Amino acid sequence: MSESVKNEQRNLRTVGFPISVDGKAGPRTRQARRDFRRAQGPLVRTSWKAYQSRLKWSAAHGGVFSRWNPHFKYSDWKSNGNGWIKVDARIVRACEAVRRCSGPFGIISGYRDPLWNARVGGASDSQHMYGLAADCNVPIGCASRVADIHGIGICSGGNTRACHIDVRSGVRVFWNY
């Protein structure tokens, strides 16, 4: 058993990933490592030293993404189904940009594992399953000002607040639900 792997696993658990601390870099540890790095952006995906530094910092700060994205935590994107976390750096940056306009808000639903997505009636190609979406209660005007947001789902009933934002590729789409 490797003590460095145990430390890494402890930090990944502190951040919110549901993995064991056994000192073995098994499949779940490797997946948590990949998913953490994806949420941090390109530098951390390619640099082991940057990964270790960011993971240690995030764990020491209660699972916050980074100094540059300080208002959201990995656990905000934890699936209500299997408890896994999957989030892309682009949706975190987009949420920070919306927050600058709207003020504080929470994430109602982030990542959805496929079984949970089906259980809640999500679209078969839901952006939530890829860690590219967040359901939150933010003003539509603020969400629509953020260039990276390409999907905005608006709550029905004349509500002026968006309920879904995502950073899918392609043309911007709006819909009511």
Topology readout:
Blueprint: H1 3-15, H2 27-40, H3 42-46, H4 48-60, H5 89-102, H6 114-119, E1 133-139, H7 140-145, E2 151-154, E3 161-166, E4 173-176
Characterization of the model:
- The protein has helices spanning 3-15, 27-40, 42-46, 48-60, 89-102, 114-119, 140-145; strands at residues 133-139, 151-154, 161-166, 173-176.
- Strand 2 and strand 3 form a beta hairpin.
- It is of the alpha+beta class and 177 residues long.
- The N and C termini lie far apart (50 Å).
- It has two domains: 1-63, no CATH class; 77-177, 2-Layer Sandwich (Muramoyl-pentapeptide Carboxypeptidase, domain 2), CATH 3.30.1380.
- It contains seven helices and four strands, in the order H-H-H-H-H-H-E-H-E-E-E.
**H-E order:** HHHHHHEHEEE
Question: How many whole angstroms does the radius of gyration measure?
Answer: 17 Å
Distance between the termini: 50 Å
Beta fraction: 5-15%
Characterize the quaternary organization of these chains.
single chain
Large-scale geometry: globular
Helix proportion range: 40-55%
- At CATH level 3, the topology of the largest domain is Muramoyl-pentapeptide Carboxypeptidase, domain 2
Instruction: Return the domain count.
Output: 2
Q: State the name of the first-level CATH class of the largest domain.
A: Alpha Beta
Structural class: alpha+beta
* SS elements, strand count: 4
Provide the spatial order of strands within the biggest beta sheet. 1-3-2-4
Q: In the CATH classification, which architecture of the largest domain applies?
A: 2-Layer Sandwich
Count of alpha/pi helices:
7
Biggest beta-sheet profile = 4 strands, mixed
Low-confidence blocks of residues: none
